[in-house]
């Protein structure tokens, strides 16, 4: 029987550029816990070089085909590309809708494209908990561009703007007030808006509409003005324009320390989130907290205590220096 | 100059059934902090009687008109109705899109209908932080039905199922793969699916499609099977059917202690969330935590420490009994 390779040996193989070791380390990151922390602690010093581009938008907007085209262009420019696709877990089967293999077949032979699908935390398309860690791993593995694809349902829209340096919102020309209003939610987070399926008869009108809405936005002097790009992943048009605008946004961030500030903000919020996760786990693990909670909840159910009265009592079991 | 009424006097007027006092107390709940807690502590013992129904769905699905019709029917059955409409904050103006007044004009003369709009936390349609508290206030004010309307963008879908006893998902017949896939996210949380705009030519087909998707769901023996109802708020058809199905779901919950269990689950998650909010505030308020964080973040920026190393150090400043 072959033994499972140790984390140490995986990390060594990873440092030597072995894809299979990287893939196994990602699985460890997905599983979380102490092993995941050990992996991250060990690789973190080699991170900080990858530029992160988020692609979000409603299901059916053609994000995956667009990513295929964009990846080909970035490869032609000699970028080493990591791709993380967050698959919404199917509410009925519990499994992911798509796998790596069918998703990026076009690049499956290219050793400089590393694709990984992660199942979303909830079925509503939220970003997987370990996305940051997997991005770090691809970064440490030498990818200088990491593309993160999320489905714009659920909380992912907000979260992607906490993880990516450039956020690309992918839309398709569609009618209906509902869709229009929904776009309003995405308006805030996009650095670049792609109107995909440019061969559609309504495409130019829809792009103009987005542009008009963006004009209402109050952008401080010198800050980035979101751009709208027409593409057709099927007809392969507009992809160069999109790459140009992504690079323009990247140059904009490089000016005046904007990029460094953004990177710091992202890292601070990661530490804060990880700390709160840990606090929650520790509170759950405390017998005293659990017993007091169980007891007091009975009073809450009977209407004798308000939820805040219980919180104030629980709080007293915690001391912070 | 008239003095601002004290919380005590507002609570007295509230107990006497004064609408203006209830409205001012809601504003206090919205502002949060110690005053909000005092209000909740004082009214909580009078809560527990209101049945909570959530209405969610994409913008433009006609939720507001449907709520108007539903409210009229519930009033005809002598229910006292509270309505909380979560308005997505406009990303550009920061204000709410709609106000109470234009929203429910039909019931503005009815003292037994209490309408309040709350601005959503984020612009992506999340539920306002104080929704639970405002529901409690309406409950304590004697409303026996509280309808909560949220826009199905952002995180609200998930959250509504943690706040409402019955979740009604309102949809309209529309084509497009994107819309279909998006519905998949809503499939999980709806107890009742309304296909609104039943006069639309595609309505019956769309309703059948939802029904077919729901059939794929693995529902344990004896559990609620989500129902699909065709309505037209404009034509006023199907509203009675909807009320019947809502009441059927309520009877289902009343059997075998399901309702009591659900209520307990909701209260437990409220206490847990409030406790975590408090922990976060206390961590932010600690000078030691802040200083250590600032210092260590510099090492993280330079890649010398991983985020988890910092978390493990910060954790040591916290002790839990």
Q: CATH topology of the largest domain in chain A, anyone?
A: Rossmann fold
Looking at the overall shape, the CATH architecture of the largest domain in chain A is 3-Layer(aba) Sandwich
How far apart, in Å, are the first and last alpha carbons of chain A?
51 Å
Give the chain pair forming the largest contact, with residue counts.
Answer: A-B, 80 and 80 residues
Query: H/E series of chain A, N to C?
Result: HHHEHEHEHEHEHEHEHHHHE
The dominant shape of chain A is: globular
User: What count of helical segments of chain A does DSSP give?
Assistant: 13
Return the CATH class of the largest domain in chain A.
Answer: Alpha Beta
Oligomeric state of the chains in view: homodimer
Largest sheet of chain A: 7 strands, parallel
How many domain regions of chain A? 2
How large is the share of residues in beta strands of chain A? 5-15%
Query: What is the structural class of chain A?
Result: alpha/beta
Annotation, overall tally of beta strands of chain A: 8
CATH superfamily of the largest domain in chain A: P-loop containing nucleotide triphosphate hydrolases
Which consecutive residue ranges of chain A, at least 5 long each, have pLDDT under 50? 90-102
Mean pLDDT of chain A: 85
Radius of gyration of chain A: 22 Å
Give the strand order, joined by hyphens, for the main sheet of chain A.
Answer: 3-2-4-1-5-6-7
